[in-house]
Design brief:
The chain is mainly α. It has helices at residues 3-10, 14-37, 42-88, 92-103, 108-119, 124-132, 143-158, 160-170, 177-200, 204-233.
Length: 234
């Protein structure tokens, strides 16, 4: 498989990558900010950061997997129910489809034509009933891949706020680590904000500003909570 084909294969999962990355970066940066506000040592920040990164990322990916699987199972359940009803009554699907298209304004000869066309397709008539009457849309993406992509992006983007602390632990660095972490995290937000704008088909600047604002608010709240608890307890 060529690189282009691989990219196209995973392109439908870009939205999961974006939202997993946003959550990972925001929550990890909030942990770092709260720890700095509480005056915790760099080693403790690394421990708390990675514990959050791995545990929260796993929880989010499991949630995404179960949510998608539930949707697919629900669709299959109703689809099988419709198929069973069709087996028991040969006129079932025509009556059901006629009801759907009557509600959409079809009548007389036009109604007969569209009912015949739709019911001749063994799958199409079920999809229409589930979509129009039950508001159930089939989920074509793999639940396992959704969970995997979510976890991967959560780790990949969420690790950014911790990188400077890990590097400082290995090779001591001069300067304010939290400031450096904030700058690196800002770049992470720029990338994920750009991808978010692409997924939602909105203005790039808007997507970047929204993501940066979300991260900043989370960090500020976490920092001052950490500072308050540190002054209260210590």
């Amino acid at each position: 498989m060529t690189p282009t084909a691989r990219i196209k294969k995973w392109e439908p999962y870009l939205s999961e990558f974006v939202y997993g990355g946003i959550d990972g970066c925001v929550t990890t940066f909030a942990v770092v900010a709260g720890s700095v506000g509480a005056g915790l040592d760099s080693a403790v920040i690394i421990i708390l950061g990675f514990a959050n990164l791995l545990a929260d990322g796993f929880a989010m990916s499991v949630g995404a997997y179960l949510s998608t699987k539930t949707e697919k199972d629900n669709y299959s359940k109703h689809k099988n129910r419709e198929l069973e009803s069709d087996k028991q009554d040969p006129n079932y699907k025509k009556v059901r489809i006629a009801q759907v298209f009557k509600s959409l304004g079809y009548k007389d000869q036009a109604l007969d034509v569209v009912v015949d066309q739709v019911t001749n397709d063994s799958e199409r008539w079920i999809d229409i009933i589930l979509k129009e009457e039950m508001k159930i849309i089939p989920e074509n993406k793999s639940p396992l891949k959704i969970g995997g992509v979510t976890y991967f992006s959560f780790i990949l983007i969420g690790i950014i706020p911790l990188l400077i602390y890990v590097l400082d632990y290995l090779i001591p660095i001069r300067g304010d680590l939290f400031v450096i972490a904030s700058v690196l995290t800002g770049f992470g937000f720029l990338i994920i904000g750009w991808l978010k704008a692409h997924v939602n088909d909105t203005r790039i600047l808007k997507g970047i500003i929204e993501t940066l604002a979300l991260g900043a608010i989370a960090a500020i709240v976490a920092y001052f909570i950490g500072d308050f608890l540190e002054s209260l307890i210590v």
